[in-house]
Write a structure and sequence with these properties.
Blueprint: E1 3-7, H1 11-22, E2 26-31, H2 34-40, E3 46-49, H3 55-61, E4 68-71, H4 77-90, E5 95-98, H5 102-110, E6 115-117, H6 119-132, E7 138-143, E8 146-152, H7 167-171, E9 174-180, E10 186-188, E11 200-207, H8 208-215
Parallel strand pairs: 1-2, 1-4, 2-3, 4-5, 5-6
Antiparallel strand pairs: 7-8, 8-11, 9-10, 9-11
């Protein structure tokens, strides 16, 4: 069972902690607000009222060998930075922190935080993609203009094998998996002789512009 500590139980932190607990993770939830802690106490492994800005407090409640610590103190910039600094000093290997802005993110990265994230920004981007490209089921940005997306296999490709469909030649895209819409079952690294059929969802990787053309194939 993976051990994860969530520090900061605002809207994002509390929902994140509950989701992790439902995924059978051992969750330690920390906040200095007793009402926030009380609201989640029965849904996680352990919930503690504590000031995460204090190094001695963190040393007492967060084991240094914990798998992950998620710092969700994005609105409290000073608290978030102090918490990340103390966690690094404790020897916590994986620290993920919510940032309020780019300056905040830069400071967190300079402290050695493993991952900095912007939940509102990421949610907005995903929603924008879904509105602009309604046949896009999901997307995962990789940087360098590359991304992994899920799209329904175009109708014009039905009955063709992956080798016959112009996915690689015309769109410079790589099919890394095929999911069945009806069952959700996934076939990873499908063979070139796989024949596309209705209900197939392609998980493809490529450049954003090429994948946009592929998803518009319909």
């Amino acid at each position: 069972m993976k051990q994860i500590c969530v520090i900061g139980l605002g809207n994002f932190g509390s929902h994140f902690a509950r989701t992790l607990a439902q995924m059978d993770c051992e969750v330690l939830a920390i906040d200095n607000n007793e009402h926030s802690v009380a609201a989640i106490r029965d849904e996680v492994h352990q919930a503690i009222i504590a000031d995460a800005r204090d190094s001695e407090t963190l040393q007492m409640v967060v084991p240094p060998d914990i798998d992950d610590v998620v710092v969700s103190l994005g609105d409290d910039l000073a608290g978030s930075i102090l918490c990340a600094l103390h966690l690094k000093k404790l020897g916590v290997k994986s620290i993920r922190a919510k940032a309020a802005n780019e300056d905040h993110a830069e400071i967190l990265r300079s402290l050695g935080v493993s991952e900095v994230f912007f939940p509102e920004r990421e949610t907005a981007e995903r929603m924008a993609w879904r509105i602009v490209r309604p046949n896009l089921l999901d997307f995962f940005p990789l940087g360098e203009d590359y991304e992994v997306i899920e799209i329904p296999a175009p109708k014009s490709f039905m009955g063709q094998t992956l080798a016959e469909a112009p996915i690689r030649i015309r769109f410079q895209a790589l099919v890394i998996a095929i999911k069945k819409a009806q069952t959700g079952a996934a076939l990873f690294m499908p063979a070139a002789n796989y024949t596309l059929s209705p209900g197939d969802i392609l998980v493809v990787m490529g450049k954003s512009a090429d994948l946009q053309r592929l998803s518009a194939e319909g």
